[in-house]
Amino acid sequence: MALDRNKVQQAVEAGNGILKLAPSWVPRSFMIPGRRLKLHPDDIYAYGGSRGGINERWFSSTTKAANGPETSEFEGLSFVVTDSGEQFLLKDAVEVAGDLLLSKEVFDREQGWNILCKFFDNEGPIPHHMHQNDEHASAVGFKGKPEAYYFPPQYNQTFNNFPFTFMGLTPGTTKEQIRECLQKWEQGDNGITFLTSAYRLEPGAGWQINPGILHAPGSLCTYEPQVNSDVFGMFQSEVEGRIVPWELLVKDVPEGKKHDIDYIISMLDWEANVDPNFAANNKVFPIVASTGEGYEEKWIVYGTKFYSAKELTVKPGATVTITDVEAYGLIVVQGYGDFGGTPVSTPSMIRFGDLTEDELFVTAAAAQKGVVIKNPSTTDPLVILKHFGPGNPDAAKLIKEKTGPTSWKK
Q: Residue 375 belongs to a domain with what CATH number?
């Protein structure tokens, strides 16, 4: 049965423009979970051993995970939870009442909530891979995918096995060398990481990774705002002794091109990969957005028109009113308090299927009116990560027109 618009409006009004969301867990069969998402140890393999362990939590998601033939019906999708305990998909709510949630102007422009945000948590590195741009992703019916990384200190008290990320390719690398790596796929390690550099990951900082850039995320728990698409291609055939099947290289390649090495290499943004100033052009450090009595807010993801994110810290004992121009999703990473009349708290441990008080969606109207946030603790700050969709006017001044060889506005 289709969701009724009135039901969405009732939930919005009951929450003063704020919607409570249930946790959305996603497993990956080719990765080893980092076990920092606060999910109970007995629930890491809640989807079954064949699906792999849960190493991702998706926030305010209207995007279903593209996770193989065993993907469950609602995998990756967020549910709104009403005061009565009734649940409905945020995706359905946006479809029938997008103007109520995002504003009429944004919904008319975007036709949806076009952002995917997640925690990504692994024990070790994952394969060197890339996400297709719009041109290549559209060939298989999807959107291209830029993504951003931020490493919240609250979720990185331990760094796990490999807190380094291989990114791009060493300047001077040739396409023929990549061709040779792909031709050696069935020989075990195809050696692609001999052609790249690893950067040590820094809690409290982040990176911008544009489509077509190779990267092998390391073992820090990562907060990742990104375009709402789940396309990728793995270019590394073995990682930590685990074989990566060719199918994960060509998962999002047209049928007639799955063994066309020239086509596969053409999916790479070559200039961006061999950029001699790769770190200077792609590493992101927090920028203070605003401060006031009892709070500080920083931009932690910025530089592109596709998404942005802030970290809000409300000091112990403070009550503040925070305004934003657009709707946003949020995750509470430290402390507890009251967010616009809704209790919020950071869980110590979560059972699979249980609800939490750490995830909300804030409508555009509520954001523009201003949300009163109270931190009753006498010792602990209340820390909240907030992710915004495309075209956030507050972040427009931070868009990088040109950085190195590629534009973040593509």
A: 2.60.120.10
